[in-house]
Amino acid sequence: ETGVTQSPTHLIKTRGQQVTLRCSSQSGHNTVSWYQQALGQGPQFIFQYYREEENGRGNFPPRFSGLQFPNYSSELNVNALELDDSALYLCASSLAISDGGGAFFGQGTRLTVV
Amino acid sequence: GQNIDQPTEMTATEGAIVQINCTYQTSGFNGLFWYQQHAGEAPTFLSYNVLDGLEEKGRFSSFLSRSKGYSYLLLKELQMKDSASYLCAPSGNTPLVFGKGTRLSVIA
Fold first, then answer.
1. pLDDT tens digit string along B15-57?
2. Rounded to whole angstroms, how far apart are CA atoms A76 and A67?
3. DSSP B82
4. Cβ contacts (< 8 Å) between A111 and chain B: which residues?
5. Mutation target vs B (from A93, A98, A110, A112; most B CBs, 10 A cutoff)
6. CB neighbours of B68 closer than 8 A, spacing ≥ 6?
7. A102: left (phi over 0), alpha (psi -120 to 50) or beta
8. What does the alpha-carbon distance between residue B100 and residue B96 come to, in Å, rounded to a whole number?
9. Which of A37, B38, B62, B72 could make a disulfide contact with A88, Cβ separation 3.0–4.6 Å?
10. B98: which chain A residues are within 8 Å (Cβ-Cβ)?
11. Phi and psi for A78 in degrees, rounded to 5?
12. How many CB atoms lie within 10 A of CB A102?
C-alpha cells in the first residue's frame, strides 16, 4: 500500500470522447506526476504538478491537461481521445520536487479507447 | 536530456543470482530509483541510491557509480515471483524519467 489511489481502475471510451482520471496523493505529498505506459514500454512522463502549478511537461499534445487541487489530489484530462491513447495511466506522488514525482505510484487506470 | 539503457530481456533459473545493469545520462543527478513492475500492475519501489556503493535490502541489492553513470540491481535466491519488469530511473533536475525496463523471466 502506497497511499496513492487512482480512479477508476478500468475505463472504456470511444474515439473522440473526453476522459478524466483522478489521483489521490499520499498524505502530505505536494508533488504529483502523471505517466502513460503502453504495453511493453516503460512509463512515459506526461506532466508534473507542484503545489497546484504545472512544473514540467513531457512530449504530449495539449489535449492532455491536468489539475492539482489544494489538497494535492490531481486530475488528468484527455480530450479528443485517439486509439493510441489506450494505455495504463499512472500517477506518482512525492514530497521532494527534485525527485521528480518520487517513489510512490498508484495502482493505475487502464484506459481502452475503441 | 536523459538517456537510459537497460537490457530488454533476461532469463535466469530459480535459486540463482541475476544482475540487471543500467547506464544513464542525465542533468543534475540526485540519485537513482529501481522499481519492480509485474505485468498489468503499477511499479513498486525497490531502492533509491544517492551515494556510490552497494546497498543491500534482503534478497535485493542496488549499486551505484555516479562517476560512471552506472547502476545495477542484484537479485539473489531468485523466486518465480521475481518474474517481472525492472525499471531504473535516474532522478535529476527533471521529473523522473524511465527507460523501457528489463523483463526478467525466472524459470524452474
1. 999 999 999 988 788 889 999 999 988 899 899 899 999 999 8
2. 7
3. G
4. none
5. A98
6. B23
7. left
8. 13
9. A37
10. 35, 42-45
11. -130, 120
12. 26
